[in-house]
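Collaborator request, handled under Task 6.
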Amino acid sequence: MRFSVLITLLVTMILIGAHAAHAQAGERCFSETGFCISGPIRAYWERGGGLPVFGLPITAQVQATVEGRPLQVQWFERDRLEIQPDGRVTAGRLGAERLEQLGTPWQPGPGTPAGPGCLAFPATGHQLCGPFAAYWRANGGLERFGLPLTGAFDAELGGTIYTVQYFERRRFELHPELGPTTVLLGLLGREVLEGRMMGTALARPGGLPTAQVLAIIDGDTVDIELAGRRERVRLIGIDTPESVAPDRPVECFAHEAAAKAAELLAGQTVFLEEDLSQDSRDRYGRLLRYLWLPDGRMANYELVAQGYAFEYTFAQPYRYQAQFKAAETQARAPGRGLWSPATCGGQVRPGTPTAPPLGGSAGFPGCAVDPGPGVAPETPLRIVGVDKRAETVTLRNMSTAPVDLSGWRMCSIRGGQEHPIGGTLAPDETRSFPGPDGNIWNNSQSDPGALYDAQGNLVSYWAD
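Structure tokens returned to the collaborator:
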């Protein structure tokens, strides 16, 4: 009897293990955002074009109410995918929603007959012409994109003027810098989700420990007294101009950022929130926390929203990333604080250092000596990961324009060696670049990385 029970338990454990392994194998996960796709949504994503068409997942799959119906949905950088009651996967009507968010809901067009090379849509009164018509026909048409809700028009995206056209589900963008008829899909998933977050007030969780602020170190770092000990805290999700580094000049708006931090935090009793998606402490031993004020506001968020700090993602997305990104967008538009052309225009460093005299090894002369941390502008690209054991480098395009990596150099500082990178990074795209055969990165000692553009300007620094 006892033997048969053991056999039954063993068989059950094997079946459970096999099911778990199958479920895990059915997922496809993305280290860039920390989210996975599976089931019908994964199948639709892969069948429909993958990363160039949908972008990375930016949420988990969850149940949400869409047009009055509860559906399983998942948000991507360029889309929202929805599982309908009959099991079909469809794309969300993000083009229509984004126009509403911008305060320009779609209006019927003139309804004129189609011109040469154009398609006319009596249902909305708009036409579809030229490269947009060719892309629409070749990539799914009505099912994938829906009806046109506007004609083609010029719009500013990230400081650059592009010809765009909105559809029920997408926004087409003409990018002549990539080719005279090159059409890209807008980042509507991210834009719509961030637009929703902008109207969502942050709410302080209950049960948080409290601490007394003792000193303001700079705009993103403070000293507190916590449980009778003095601790240094680095605010999660933000980066402010540098004012206290002894080996660098004071950056634009650094004193103003520190003064705003003092205005918000000096002498306050604050609530400390930890984020389990981040380390509890950074490599310098500082606590990583959100600091909530007694009036219910969060200091991290206020510094970004009022234009005194940049949104900053270190390696992994954090809990309030969407809200912080939306707050930065809100601060940029009217030119608040460090975004004002009269102050910094978003560039806080007095000058981007160019590559110093080449100091690489004889076999790799293209890499420079160590420029040190804190001097790279971290834009338009940022090094978001260096896996020294796997010999991979991960870069993210922080801008809203494509970046051609021709002539760019990614350098291992200790060895003076160059890690191969290339191609074009789309706006907000994150991509990992494998190394060649053999070792470039030093696994036993510190080995920082530096990224230079085609003109030799330092763009990003990875402090190992």
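The cover message to the collaborator said: "Residues 13 and 167 are 50 Å apart (CA to CA). Confidence is low (pLDDT under 50) at residues 1-25, 350-365. Please let us know whether this matches your experimental observations."
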